Amino acid sequence: MNERLILVTNDDGYASKGLAAAIEVARSFGRVVAVAPETTQSGMSQAITMYKPLFLRRVRQEPGVEVYAFSGTPVDCVKMAFDHLLREERVDLVVSGINHGSNSAVNVLYSGTMGAALEGSFYGCPAVGLSLDDHSEDADFEAAVLYGKRIIGDLLAHPVEMPLCLNVNIPAGRPEALHGIRLCRQNRGYWREEFFRRQDPLGREYFWLTGNFVNTEPDACDTDERALAEGWVSVVPIQADLTDYRRLEQLREVFGPNEK
Amino acid sequence: MNERLILVTNDDGYASKGLAAAIEVARSFGRVVAVAPETTQSGMSQAITMYKPLFLRRVRQEPGVEVYAFSGTPVDCVKMAFDHLLREERVDLVVSGINHGSNSAVNVLYSGTMGAALEGSFYGCPAVGLSLDDHSEDADFEAAVLYGKRIIGDLLAHPVEMPLCLNVNIPAGRPEALHGIRLCRQNRGYWREEFFRRQDPLGREYFWLTGNFVNTEPDACDTDERALAEGWVSVVPIQADLTDYRRLEQLREVFGPNEK
Questions:
Q1: Is A83 in the B-facing interface, judged by CB distances under 8 Å?
Q2: Does A199 touch chain B (CB under 8 A)?
């Protein structure tokens, strides 16, 4: 069997500690090509760059690991990898992360890490987004690396139907403090912002986004938020069809039945 | 009954022809406040601006219509409206668009127009994203305005459960050439890119994203792509929970049952 080829990407940029951790995870399963943003792209969701040119440079090359910095978004990085750099190769897995900060609940929608993972799943191989629930500069990635390896090892050992994209969140803390893996659904809720307002040096008022997550189902037991809060690694399978099938029928009462 | 308050936003920027068309739609239902990006934000998905300050300016004020330009993404515009400008008011409806170009199928994920609409639905009122399947400079918005009014009129005339977000796409062409409204699901498929490669004036290679949509179910009759192709206005109810519930059970075979 040929060695596996794994694409690694993230949204914190090619030089982040989390990318090195993701490469460590991926390296245990095969050859790694990482294509990651030049600069931080947190909160970039599934954004693509339509109106400007993008630049690619190789920043590291050693046996089994190549790293490229790309001037676009996380999704641009995935597209660059599959549609240009690795076009002639078969990619076996996409690993996105390890994000500095969790991407549970509705954060999955704003997350560049998860935007890239979902995009990766469009190319026919499993895609796993890994996020550590710790924003601190000296965050300890050991548990995230350990569980990342365990989850990907389990995935690769079983036949799984494609497309497959997993949103994996790891609580902060030492591996021995975590209870294990829990399959969950995405917690419902939303953010409410409190714009931070100040004046710039020219006296112009500026706004800076800052807010709080509102958990609309704090008592639910089967969500990723709950799993994280209780010290479990949350695993949510996600997919790209936003259709609200339940409402499709309800709305016929508003718009009438479809005509011919 | 008090006059309704409608928030209008888009991803093409405050000066676009499509924003004027969306304001025309919204104006027939009440007072309009528009908060739209300073510059084009196409392809910005549900991105938020985390690492820089944002600037707001009022660009138009007349009875019943105020327009603000905000230096962030479409989702930033929605957050600015609900969490700052209109914090003390009750917003009855969000209209996003009218986009220059369709947002059917997987485009809903990359679209700034639909990112803003989905965000709007998190604030407890119906949100409607309107997109016209015509990218040309002199696109004719008449049919989009007409159907936008009809769809929103129907929505406001019926009690509907919240949250509600509609992805509405209007085929190019004159209103009389369209057949009517069709409730649909999101078409499956993905984009494959062909990066356009050239050299900049300094001799550095650059890449520019360009690609083609791959429709993986061209024969399906109940999708938005099919509706558009056949001259119908497609209406897809969308929601923010990406959980793939079907896979949740399947994956227990990979990861084992959830431990206590």
A1: yes
A2: no
Three-state DSSP class for residue B108: helix
- CA atoms of A151 and A136, how far apart (whole Å): 24
Tens digit of each residue's pLDDT (9 = 90 or more) over B147-168:
999 999 999 999 999 999 999 9
Tens of pLDDT, residues B91-106 = 999 999 999 999 999 9
**What is the C-alpha R_g of chain A?**
19
Q: What are phi and psi of B103, to 5 degrees?
A: -125, 40
Q: Which of B19, B11, B23, B9 has its CA nearest to residue B81?
A: B9
Contact B37, B13 (CB under 8 A): yes
3-state SS assignment for residue A181: strand
Is B199 touching A (CB cutoff 8 A)?
no
Residue A152 φ/ψ, nearest 5 degrees: -70, -40
**Region A176-197 average pLDDT:** 96
Query: What are residue A251's phi and psi, to 5 degrees?
Result: -75, -10
A191-198: list long-range contacts, CB under 8 Å, 24+ apart. Answer: A191/A106, A191/B79, A191/B122, A192/B83, A193/B79, A193/B83, A193/B84, A194/B83, A195/B79, A195/B80, A195/B83, A195/B84, A198/B53
Q: Which residues of B116-148 are buried (b: 16+ CB within 10 A; e: fewer)?
A: bbbbbbbbebbbbbbbbbbeeeebebebbbbbb
In angstroms, the separation between the Cα of residue B121 and the nearest Cα of chain A is 10
C-alpha to C-alpha distance for B148 and B152, rounded to whole angstroms: 6
Q: Which residue in B49, B106, B237 is closest to A248 by CB distance? A: B237
For A161, half-sphere exposure in the C-beta direction (CA atoms, 13 angstrom radius) is 10
Distinct helix (H) and strand (E) counts, chain A:
8, 13
Give the largest Cα separation in chain B, rounded.
Answer: 64
Q: Is the ipTM of this complex over 0.90?
A: yes
How far are the Cα atoms of A23, A255, B168 from residue B234, in angstroms, in the given order? 43, 12, 6
Q: Say what the pTM is.
A: 0.97
